[in-house]
Amino acid sequence: MKPFGMHALWGLRCTKSRLASRSCWVCPSCQPRHVRQCRWSSSDGSPKSTDKPYYITTPIFYVNAAPHIGHLYTMVLTDVLKRWQQINGNEAFLCTGTDEHGMKIQRAAAKEGMHPKEFCDSNSNKFRELAASADIAHDFFIRTTDAEHKEAVKQFWLQLKHGLPEKLGLYKGSHEGWYAVSDECFYPEDMVQPSIVPQTGKKIMVSVETDSEVEWIKEETWFFPLTKYKDALLKFYDENPDWITPAHRMNEVRNWVENHLEDLSITRPVSRLSWGIPDPEDSKQTIYVWVDALINYITKAGYGTRWHSASDDMGLWPADLQVIGKDILRFHTIYWPALLMALDLPLPKRILCHNHWTMSNRKMSKSLGNVVNPFFAVQRWDVDPLRYFLMRNGSFSKDMSYSNQLIGSVYAKDLKANIGNLFYRIARPKVTAKWSTKEAVATYRDGGFQDFMNMKAADSSQERYFSLESHLKKATPAFCEEMDYCNTGGAIRAVFNLLRETNRYVSDTEPWNLVKNPDPESRALLNWVIFNSAEALRIAGILLQPIMPTKASELLNELGVKPERRTVQYARKGKDVDYGTEAQPSSDKGRTKKWDTIFPPTPNANDSDAEVMEQLRTMLQSKTKNKMNQMAELLAMEARMGEEAVTKLRMNHSQDESQVRGMRMSEGGSGTAYPGPGLPNFNLSRTTSLRHASRKQGNMRINEKTAIATSQVLLVPYEAHHVLNYHGWMQDPSIQEATASEPMSLEEEYENQQSWRTARDKLTFIVCEPLQATPDGGDVRFVRAKDADADDRMRGDINFFLYPDEEEEDTSQNGLIGEVDVMIADTEHRGQGFGGASVRALLTYLQRRLAEILKEHTTGDGSLNQGDAKLTGLMAKIKQGNVGSRALFQKLGFRQRGEVNYFGEVTMVMEWGEAERRVEEWARGEVEGYREVVYGVLADELGES
């Protein structure tokens, strides 16, 4: 084990830094290599590392919650920068993964009643799925629960304990201070302040930096002497002023080190935190989650397996670029470099700190219902257009605004009008003959433009034919310069300007008129215009590959550019003279040709994600005679979201409202906390909720005054007085996770209650404790609201949804399928039979009242004729891993249909005839005492009497 090099703290080696001091940041790959300043310099220029592959990392993502748009942005940004290195001819590696230890994970798993590892396995997979859906070409996906990582942490820890001089290594002591569970860290006294919880009026202390609640904790832990590294850190910052981008973040870091630095408590007592990596020599201590997490970057670089100290060949380390969000700046720019200095290891070469995303300039918040589901965003806008938007609008200096309107505007202007329009003007002209990129490129290769070029200076009337020259010349250098600063937005603007000028060039030179003239001069001019325009497209396609890998590849394929000629060295005019395709005029046949384009039409950008789903549902249910329009709309959806995705959405289009509340198919919910790729996390605002849209469809009031009672359960209509308790259920994070739901304000919950109670296509009941017999043993004739269904008697809810049966072979019949959705809210009430009893009671009610239900469902709805409607079967969709739910419905007579679907669900079905037969069986025992009782307030009871 190599001892700590004291020179690292006592003074730098007498060699010049290889980091040039400059006001702007230069990409590490473009910096001149100088002799290494010191081992923990931000760059390692030793001979053995000269040819080191480019190594870029994301922060590892905490698995206590579902992925959000910020996670997606970080993944895409690092992926783009990695791909940029690759098309520059450099070998590059990208590491991402999940952070799976700590107090938040321990508590979240306990609320779910799960072992922490099981909880982490489930949630880590969601980040893998997000990376796959966004076309992230990561080379490593690390989990801090991996055995390889645990071993690396152990070795790092023992070096900190035993490999350093006495006052520079770990020491044990008593620590007390303000600790934030949500931030997993302590805060100094001057970084906390009093606050009040608005909902309760409770007085608390919070972090000034993050506004997270803190609590005073006193405990014995191991400490890292961070204050001993203060001078070394400040010296490093002074000599590497561009280490952090943007520059103002360096000022924040320096201020913290100068004014707030304290020794770092880097263990937690096992009695308080057991879910983590234990101190290998002190069983009463668990290693601090941030120490554990930071080491991941060197784990995948080979630390602990292929190398153990800086004297070894460190392979990928140091990282060339580490991308982080502003909320974790301190951990990566103070704690991390100090820990590396302690072990005499080189520091990462650069830290890139980005800002956060807002929704239309408002902070994203679950309580506001404006959190973006990245899975559905990818589906709605397609992978590459969304990547393009995130890279175009990303920022390192200010928070970024996300909105569908912004994405729609960028899509229409940059992609459809600029790139797509130019491609179809040049490579797929509307005229019937007679130019081709292949002929134009061949003319250039064979010197066919030489005489024309000589004429340039002599004839000023020909200037418009040469107006694109300067733009073709400067586009690639401008793009490269911006990418070397990791400014993807600036790089995109360089390409956008080139294509915009090319569109203008085409309009000014009018190749559609040149093609009409048979003389050789006009033909030469035509080929010159087509060649220059094709060069602009080719250069743009090469440069945009890191940002839009699929679309750029499609564009280059259409131009006939060979795969081996798609690196940056070819992104200059005339560098590739062996590409092009024969004339391929656009076809005017068919009304759906616009969907078959590189950038096809999109759903209305002003529509929320929820409204897009509603439009799909409405479009598919439409009985319009104009089937061409309907098919065109369907093709548009498929072109945008992918045929497979739309097929799955079609299969599930009428359960979208049940998905809003959560996929809750049995007593314990549907198991997996997050809906996963493809399932929209709807924007539950008061004006866009799908539940509100259902008001337009009329009312189903058959159960408005009816309670369903059996010896095992009581079902009552969902009324306003239930909302407060229901709202309380939905504020519990474990319920939110179990139901895949977002919390709403109380006002929104009341509005949704009204929508659900009056919608034509659903019945909804609150599940309650069964009725007690009257004192004389007689039947209860009236169920008074707020009595039998008081808060302490509420157990959950059950819903029944109607929508067209797409599996029915006879399309002339208006068959309907009914979906059953049941949830028992509190864990203490699950496993007591409420779920099964509720389903049996509901199906009995359906069997007895089916004609009336279908009448209310169809009356006034132009899509169905009352007499033709029929219920063909029942269905429940259950998460694959929810074994209990599947067993419940199987016991009730449902059977599995098909395999696991796109959303990770199993579909269980029962034909309606079979359901009727089972209801008759249940009447002889399973639904003992079934009766329908009048339900209402005191006035209703008096009216009954």
Automatic annotation (TrEMBL):
GO biological process, one term: methionyl-tRNA aminoacylation
Record field: catalytic activity: tRNA(Met) + L-methionine + ATP = L-methionyl-tRNA(Met) + AMP + diphosphate
Positions of region (Disordered): 574-608, 651-678
GO cellular component, one term: mitochondrion
EC number: 6.1.1.10
Top-tier EC class: ligase
Keywords carried by this UniProt record: Aminoacyl-tRNA synthetase, ATP-binding, Ligase, Nucleotide-binding, Protein biosynthesis
InterPro entries from the UniProt entry: Acyl_CoA_acyltransferase (IPR016181), GNAT_dom (IPR000182), Met-tRNA_synth (IPR014758), Met-tRNA_synth_2 (IPR023457), Methionyl/Leucyl_tRNA_Synth (IPR015413), MetRS_core (IPR033911), Rossmann-like_a/b/a_fold (IPR014729), tRNAsynth_Ia_anticodon-bd (IPR009080)
Domain N-acetyltransferase, chain residue ranges per copy: 733-913
GO molecular function ontology, one term from the record: ATP binding
NCBIfam families recorded: metG
Family in the record: Belongs to the class-I aminoacyl-tRNA synthetase family.
Name the record gives this protein: Probable methionine--tRNA ligase, mitochondrial
Gene source species: Tolypocladium paradoxum
